[in-house]
Amino acid sequence: MKISEIVKIVDGILCGNSDLEINAVGKIETASEGDITFISNPAYEKYFETTKAGAVLVSENFVPRTEREDITVIKVRDPYRSFLDLIEIFNKEEEDFSGISDFCSIGDDPEIADDVHIGNYTSIGKIVKIGSKSKIYPNCSIGNNVEIGNNCIIYPNVSIYNGCKIGNNVIIHSGTVIGSDGFGFAKQEDGTYKKIPQRGIVLIEDDVEIGSNCTIDRATIGETKICKGVKLDNQIMVAHNVEIGENTVIAAQTGIAGSTKIGKRCMIGGKAGIGGHLRICDDVTLGAAIGLVKSITKPGMYMGYRAKPMREFLHEEANIKRIPRIEEEIKEIKNKLK
Predict the structure, then answer these.
(1) Are 80 and 119 within one domain?
(2) Is 97 part of any domain?
(3) What is the extent of the structural domain holding 262?
């Protein structure tokens, strides 16, 4: 693609050769002459002097330390978002299969759109609905009475248990399990545990993306609900009857215990541990490796093993560093008193 075409796509201002041919997108440290790259983080501005890229996307107020006539510069409002658009164009995935494989199994009374793709050795249960342009890759297991919307992508080795409902434009990555039993057991007089039946479902609304090897448990009764626009990283555990509000994003290895409700537009860092039956209001940010055992009713950022507002957490951390000096001062005072 010529650079002049790229300028139109990203709505940028061109500084350099409009006839330059671009073949790919690349990292600024390793890009070659036919690549276009970007600078959005000031930490990467130093690479402008050494990069071998043919073109660079920069912000409208970018001023290089060293002028380079051998690089074409495109100034845009948001270099990162413009670069993402170009990645999508230059790395568009080709169809790797089409139609319904002869090696898959489909139960009775399905409602499957004509343009659905189903890969080898996938098992589809009874009375399953699959919407238009959805793709189900090989080796998936789709239970009875499952509903999958339009334009969904279900990658290999995903299991969706009976009765679960998936909205439109949902992406589920490999190894994820949707609708396994919630962790419910009642202790008996003899010390053994009796399983509590899990009769609810998992409801995943539109525009959700779920990473690989996640587990989303079905509700005991009712729904475990992942609302519209939620993005889950890899290896996340969502227990029964949890609700995750719209456009919330959660990083890897987070665990959410049963019946907790998370609000809209929240951001949760990796390895967060969130207790059961809690309420987290809208617009909350939880730091990585946080431990949350109380509900949060005020928006803001929280950090620490026992979650605290960020300012309070940082104040405590600063005081911890002062402890050795305080101990020395106490010793001196004791010696003077003696």
Answers:
(1) no
(2) no
(3) 105-304
Q: What is the pLDDT of residues 161-211, one digit of tens each?
A: 999 999 999 999 999 999 999 999 999 999 999 999 999 999 999 999 999
User: Is 316 part of any domain?
Assistant: no
- DSSP calls for 168-179: SS-EE-TT-EEE
Q: For the chain, how many structural domains are there in total?
A: 2
Q: What is the distance between the terminal CA atoms of the chain, rounded to a whole angstrom?
A: 83
Q: Are residues 213 and 283 in the same domain?
A: yes
Helices (H), the chain: 3-10, 79-90, 310-337
Examine the domain organization and report whether 113 and 77 are in the same domain: no
Cα–Cα distance list, 199 to 215, 217, 240 (Å): 17, 11, 10
Annotated catalytic residue, options 117, 173, 240, 277 = 240
Note the pLDDT tens digit of each residue in 60-71.
Answer: 999 888 889 899
pLDDT number for residue 150 = 98
* Whether 125 and 84 share a structural domain: no
Q: 117 catalytic, yes or no?
A: no
What is the Cα–Cα distance from 134 to 179, expressed in whole angstroms?
Answer: 20
User: Is residue 174 a part of any domain in this protein?
Assistant: yes
CB 117 within 8 A of CB 93: no
How far is Cα 140 from Cα 300, in angstroms, rounded to an integer? 40
CATH code of the domain covering residue 74: 3.40.1390.10
Count of positions (residues) in the chain: 338
Confidence band for 317, pLDDT divided at 50, 70 and 90: confident
* Nearest-10 crossing angle of helices 79-90, 3-10: 120
Are residues 55 and 120 part of one domain? no
Q: Return all residues near 238 (Cβ < 8 A) that are at least 6 apart.
A: 214, 215, 216, 217, 224, 226, 232, 244, 256
